[in-house]
Amino acid sequence: MATLVHLEGTTLEGGGQLLRIALGLSSLTGIPIRITNIRGKRSRGGGLKAQHLTSVQWLGRASNAQLTGAELKSKEITFTPSTDDIFKWSSDVQISQSTPGSINLVLQAILPYLLFSGAKKRMKLRITGGTNVSNSPSYDYVTQVLLPMLAHIGIPPIQSDLHSRGWSQGSNSLGSVTYTIKPLTKPLPSFQLTKRGTIQSVQATILAPKSYEQQIRDELNLMFEKREEAIFGEREPEIGITFEDSRHDKRFYLLLVATSTTGIKLGRDWLYDHGVRAGKIDAVISNLVKKVAGDLIGEIEHGGCVDEYLRDQLVVYQALARGQSRVDGGRSNRVLKEPSLHTQTAQWVVGELIGVQFDEEGSCDGIGFDSGRKIDGERNEEEKELVKGLEKLAVGPPEEK
Ligand SMILES: Nc1ncnc2c1ncn2[C@@H]1O[C@H](COP(=O)(O)OP(=O)(O)OP(=O)(O)O)[C@@H](O)[C@H]1O
């Protein structure tokens, strides 16, 4: 059996993302893990919140793992997946949360498993919880940035269906989304996100109380006029704006997604998460538009192929792909942009678990994960090289008909 890998939960970002990536890799590879001081850098003592526990439990069941410490607020877990061949999850999946915990953080935790575990059939994954939750990928970001970019790197296109929205703002409300996922039938080929091109269009998505629709549209149009050159350079601007009634006077959300001539998507958003005081609404709307536009322009100006959030979310796919993949994170003052703490944490976790190392240019040599085989955590350097060589020659399972 592979040697247990200990991950200290206060490392780098020290939040829930470390746990999600580690669980996904552990359940795929069979490498047992122990995580101590879970979310140790978070306030209120850290530990597992409902959203994290949901992922632990689901992945535990899927990979037939032995679990200790899988309870709310737990600060330490051990997760020992079955040493038999990977269980090929093939039925539809329903995950219900009773609070608006982020649907897309649950997706983040289990998607690598669903894609790479060798299941043969297309499956529907329905999750209830929050679609628009602070500090997590919104439904809108996932459908407009993450999923198109996953398709761009070679993941079979994932379809999304929004049944209802769930918010962390305003009165509690549970939402529900179905993702239709076609698992990989052979290792993911390496990918290069290195050609950014110029920005050809920007799509704005506004979720706000209906009575503010016109005001936000006007503010956005003004911003596009003022910042046209910073966004589009010499190109003729292509701008789309959609509006949806958020049905609560505490729910203001804006997402801007820029699409480049090479199909790269960069997104920035903001869910306004303070109370809106009477008489302050004009300032809230103006700040919302200014902040998101400023953030998007920052992403455009660095010249890279991923926004800050996508960069950390692609790390696990780079590590599992076969061979050298590179994701250009852009430059700041001509110097390579330092990866965010979330990205550094993701890179650290894949290094600890499956030995994949990233260089400062955002390249790594992925293991070419093939569901038919598990990785032995005890391999020494020489054996790892041998395995890499074999993986380059390996032929994946036959294509699904
Ligand atoms: N506005 C956003 N758009 C897209 N993705 C986001 C956004 N904000 C955060 N994320 C992503 O959500 C993840 C958050 O990870 P993090 O560990 O902070 O979350 P968490 O599980 O809620 O844990 P914690 O409560 O410990 O912070 C990261 O992958 C980050 O890139």
UniProtKB/TrEMBL annotation:
Basic and acidic residues bias: start-end ranges: 371-391
Residue positions of the active site: 342
GO BP: RNA processing
InterPro entries reported in the protein's UniProt record: RNA3'_phos_cyclase_dom (IPR023797), RNA3'_phos_cyclase_dom_sf (IPR037136), RNA3'_term_phos_cyc (IPR000228), RNA3'P_cycl/enolpyr_Trfase_a/b (IPR013792), RPTC_insert (IPR036553)
GO MF annotations, alphabetized: ATP binding; RNA-3'-phosphate cyclase activity
UniProt keyword annotations, A-Z: ATP-binding, Nucleotide-binding
Annotated ATP binding sites: 108, 309-313
Region (Disordered): 369-401
Any single Gene Ontology cellular-component annotation: nucleus
Domain RNA 3'-terminal phosphate cyclase per the UniProt entry, residue ranges: 12-358
SUPFAM superfamilies: EPT/RTPC-like
UniProt name for this protein: RNA 3'-terminal phosphate cyclase domain-containing protein
Species of provenance: Massariosphaeria phaeospora
Native organism taxonomy: Eukaryota, Fungi, Dikarya, Ascomycota, Pezizomycotina
